[in-house]
Amino acid sequence: MKTIVYHYCSLETFMSIVTNKIIWLSHSRNTNDKTECLYALRHITNVLENYCNNNMYDKLTDEIIDYTKSIVDFPYIFCCSKEKDLLSQWNKYGDDGKGIAIGFDINCIPHIDILGKGDFTNNLIIDEVNYNMKGFDKIIINSIKTIPLLREKGLNNGKIKNMIIEFYKMLSTFIKDKGFKEEKEVRYAFKACYAHLLKSLNEDFNINCPKHPQIKFRTSNNNIISYFEQGFEKNAIKEIVLGPKCNVDFNQLTLFLSEYLPEVRKKNKIIKSNIPYI
After folding, report:
1. N or C: at which end does the chain have fewer Cβ atoms within 10 angstroms?
2. d(Cα 116, Cα 108) in Å, to the nearest integer?
């Protein structure tokens, strides 16, 4: 995976991220993709139903299929792109070209990848978004075929179901409709413990969720959006890209970078968009 990924944002958001050294992981169902996460989950459900209609299966498989249709505990995400200068990204996320793309070094923010490799002191998972479902059908079917083996290892149905469902949730987090392929997205994802988040409504809550961060809220487009904060070291930002319509005063930008991102300014890692967008 490419080491530097780019988060497109407004000038105001850029200053907030750099000043506070914090990124926001927002609820994934509040993106501009109305099928976010649901796209893959629906496909998984269809594959399982088609497979089970033609093969022997038991009650546990039926329960897994029913659960994929009712998942509501979606992840929280922070979205970036492998490309530093995309017009579609400037339009959607970079304040119509007036904003800035922040170049993050993914290795400077503790994380694990989708295969579970990395820094387990952090609950962030990072990987590229896949826009092609080819090959996933076999993976989905194989997950069901592992049930007898898992039983032989002594796992009960409850644990098996949880393992498979969590696997499907992970797949759905990093799969999107091919219509978004141009974005070349790389995303950080955080799986919140919804039992912990709703503990105030459950008098019998006794689930232990160690080091669970505090949920926060903001408003956008007349809606309430929940999110989590994730801090980072200033060396995580390696360069910035000024949007095609970004007219920030360069002298003032230099003063700002001198205070908060001196290495970016000293190494002149300030790029101007090449897109002739007016």
Report:
1. C
2. 17
Residue type, 53: N
- Answer yes or no: are the C-beta atoms of 119 and 184 closer than 8 Å: no
Q: How far, in Å, CA of 196 to CA of 199, rounded?
A: 5
Predicted confidence band at 79 (pLDDT cuts at 50, 70, 90)?
very high
Q: Which two tokens stand for residue 114?
A: 């989708």
The full DSSP string for 16-67 is HHHHHTEEEEEEGGGSS-TTTTHHHHHHHHHHHHHHHHSS---HHHHHHHHH
Cβ-in-10-Å burial (0-12, 13-18, 19+) of 190 comes to buried
Question: Rg of the Cα trace of the chain?
Answer: 21
Spell 72-111 as b/e; 16+ CB within 10 A means b.
eebbbbbbbbbbbbbbebbeebbbebbbbbbbbbbeebbb
pLDDT in tens, 98-137: 999 999 998 888 776 655 555 545 578 899 999 988 888 9
